[in-house]
Amino acid sequence: MTTRRTFLAGLAAFGTTPTYSWADLGNPSWVSAAKTPDGSHALLGVSAQGDIVFQQPLPDRGHDTVLHPKHPHVIGFARRPGRFARVLDCRTGADLAMLHAPPGRHFYGHGVFTRDGAYLFTTENDYETANGVIGIWDSRRNYKRVGEFLSGGTGPHDIALLPDQDILVIANGGIETHPDSGRTKLNIPMMRPNLTYLDLTGGQIEQIELDRSLHTNSIRHLDVDHAGNVAFAMQWEGSSSETPPLLGYHKLGQNPILLAAPDELQQDMNNYAGSVALSRDGKQAAITSPRGGKIHIFDWHLQTFETSYDLTDVCGVAASETGFTVSTGTGVIANIDKTGLNAGARTPFLWDNHMVPLPDPASQHGT
Q1: Which helix (H) or strand (E) holds 46?
Q2: pLDDT digits over 135-183, tens only?
Q3: Are 197 and 207 in contact (CB under 8 A)?
Q4: Cα–Cα dist 188/16, whole Å
Q5: Which pTM value belongs to this model?
Q6: Which of 287, 263, 261, 293 is nearest to 274 (CA)?
Q7: What is the C-alpha separation between 170 and 160, in angstroms, rounded?
Q8: Enclosing H/E stretch for 7
Q9: Which residue, 266, 260, 276, is CA-closest to 221?
């Protein structure tokens, strides 16, 4: 394992200047994995107008993607419990590397770069000990694995980087899995999900857990705004007769705040939030439910529910210039603005769970 000193020295020494950037690809608005018309799987870059900017194959179904903050490189993760992550040069289509989970591990489908792109962090499961692990990969050395540390819980799923701070926030979902059991959840009665903040060498800064009555509310997906506010989406593993909150808000040093729609609308979410996004202006948060075919919009400042939209098999959501863009497993791309949900185009691609917006060129955040 790399030491704290050598890791930080390597981080400081990273100074490679890219010869090309996302602008060379026409600055696609977002990237997602999808199933193609011929039944194969691919990573696709999509413009704000819905045009396909690039399309590159994946060996199997994907989950999330991670975009390098400076180069037009994308990491495509296998769907949980997956063992591969493909590193692709979107400009040339070249395979830069194929990440393989170490023996006894599998990926959880998410990762994040440091702000300069030197290191990639991946959420992983040590399935013999049921410990969550964060793997460290050096992008300058062909994505060589250079270290790891504990995630602070069981079943780490999503991971993000706070803006202008070398602090990771990790959604430890609390669910134990094992590849021999596929996607079966092995510890529902004993779940303890948490939100953990770590420095880049694994030192714990803060950790929050929900009330014990919500211990089966798995914290799964994250989005972070430029002020360091963290939105987290949850998936309820308890009784189907209950309708717990599925959206949470947290900032370092504060207590978490949970948000829900009115009861009858909350029931429509089927206790499942598949993705979460914060609007660019910081005023709204959106969560999606493919199981319920719903999109819920919240006023982020007032921390109140705003409205609900119907869209079959909707899951992907990302901030857009006018509000949000959403994608579905039936091939639809639609936009949400002040006028509501606008009927989108039906594409030939069946979109997977997440839409990842292009890195902000001004901030060069790796989230």
Answers
A1: strand 41-46
A2: 999 999 999 999 999 999 999 999 999 998 999 999 999 998 777 777 7
A3: yes
A4: 46
A5: 0.90
A6: 287
A7: 7
A8: helix 4-13
A9: 276
